[in-house]
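FW: tagging you since you asked about this chain on Friday. Here's the raw sequence from the shared folder, copied in full. Didn't touch anything.
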Amino acid sequence: MSETVARAWAVTRRDGMVLGFTDHDRALSFEGIDFRPDTGLNARAVVQGSGLSVDNSEAVGALSDSAITEIDLMAGRWDAADVRLWEVDWTDTANRRLIFRGHLGEVSRSGAAFRAELRGLSEPLNRMQGRVYHPRCSAQLGDGRCGFDLSRPGYSAEGVIVSDEGGQRFILSNVDGHDARWFERGQLVVLSGPAEGLSGIVKSDLALAGARREIELWAGLGIRPAIGDRVQLVAGCDKLAETCRMKFLNYLNFRGFPHLPPEDWLLAPGVNR
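HL: got it, structure written out here
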């Protein structure tokens, strides 16, 4: 098989799109996936450790309109995509073995080329585990631990972009009935246009006259929204106990420790404990 071996990649994006690539000079097909030879995707040597060490590799390739586009990379549509790599006998694709499975990590680009870090299945073992004891809430707004339903009336709003400054600061129209700073630390989600589906974290939120809103994001979106695009604003949470109690009426689910003594108290001499 060594003389007829080729490598085949299947990359599954989070939106469900599956693309197949191969370093063979002809197309291959198996597991319901067509693996194309003309995409310019290839991989460096896969490093696979024994035990629980992290597998790692790097995929390199060329940007093309038919496969991996610069717009999709900038929009983050390839972030955390699932990756499978086989060694396959191109004369009989039933004779193959899976040698790597993981997901894409950091993706960088240079001109018409890109590099994507590959992270193996054991990579999450490097992350810190356990609960952090802190006065602020450790849950994410709307997740299972928080339990808050963000679809409740008053906690989201839709608007239209009427002004854009640098792709990071926007003036929205038709947003009324919310206090100033209501959406700070929340999300702006694009509902239409070329950036549809992208979202960013709100840095500042100012209420203006005429049901308008000035929204600034912490970072620009991968694709710049256009004037006239519709967006949705989702309320933000600063993870303080008072905010949970007064803004979201959700204090029973607060996942912080608001009465935890501060570090200065713990380090102060002569304090009875």
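FW: The chain has two domains: 2-126, 156-234.
HL: agreed, and DSSP finds three helices and 15 strands in the chain.
FW: great, closing this out.
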